[in-house]
Amino acid sequence: MPENCIFCKIVKGEIPSQKVWEDENFLAFLDINPVQQGHVLLIPKAHSDYIFSMDDKQYAEILNRAKALSEPIRKATGAKRIGLGVEGLSVPHVHIHIIPVNNINDIDPCKGKKASQEELAKIADKIRKEIAAAKL
Ligand code: AMP
Ligand code: ZN
After folding, report:
1. In the chain, how many domains are there?
2. In a domain, 1, yes or no
3. Residue 42 counted as domain residue
4. What is the mean pLDDT of the segment spanning 69-90?
5. Among 47, 72, 108, 115, whose CB has the most other CB atoms within 10 angstroms?
6. Containing domain of residue 78, as a range?
7. Distance (Å, whole) CA 35 – CA 105
8. What is the pTM of this model?
9. Which residues keep their CB under 5 angstroms from ion ligand 2?
10. Residue 1: is its pLDDT beyond 80?
11. In the beta sheet, which residues pair with residue 28?
């Protein structure tokens, strides 16, 4: 695990985050600069640099987790749909952006704006409740 990887530090609890779901191998938490309210990042707990370097099993697993999380996140935000984004140019630890969308240009990385702790806590709570109701 690279010493200075910010997402590895989140996994280890060395940096605070608004976690919404986790299992043994994956973690979902709120992006601190959401492009839309309820913007979630889904990551593998083990450091891996590039999503398309993951083996087929891990790759299928992370996409299946994104699928399972999509409906609870959609319900919590009231969005029309959930969109996914992957590029990882600024944080080289695999992450899938799970983004509530209502309009065609809602998945625009340039729209990211720092959210307050209160805003993040409020939407994280709603998402956690929907995830619990979905029994994930
Ligand atoms: P990218 O690598 O371009 O896919 O973007 C990395 C994403 O991670 C950006 O949307 C950042 O806002 C987000 N990010 C960076 N640091 C943190 C953090 N400490 N907690 C939550 N999200 C973060
Ligand atoms: Zn890492």
Report:
1. 1
2. no
3. yes
4. 97
5. 72
6. 6-134
7. 10
8. 0.98
9. 5, 7-8, 47, 93
10. no
11. 21, 42
Q: What is the pLDDT of residue 61?
A: 98
Amino acid present at 45: K
* Cβ atoms within 10 Å, residue 48: 17
Residue type, 102: N
Distance from Cα 133 to the centre of ligand 2, integer Å? 30
Q: Rounded CA gap, 125 and 61, in Å?
A: 25
Q: Name the token pair of 27.
A: 């973690």
Angle, helices 56-77 vs 117-133, to 10°: value is: 110
What is the rounded distance in angstroms from the CA atom of residue 85 to the CA atom of residue 43? 13
Do 131 and 77 meet the contact criterion of CB atoms below 8 Å apart? no
Q: Which two tokens stand for residue 120?
A: 């993040």
71, two tokens:
């409906």
In the structure, which protein residues have their CB atom closer than 6 angstroms to any atom of ligand 1?
Answer: 6, 15, 17, 31-33, 41, 87-91, 109, 112
- 3 falls in which pLDDT band (50, 70, 90)? confident
Q: Is residue 49 part of a domain?
A: yes
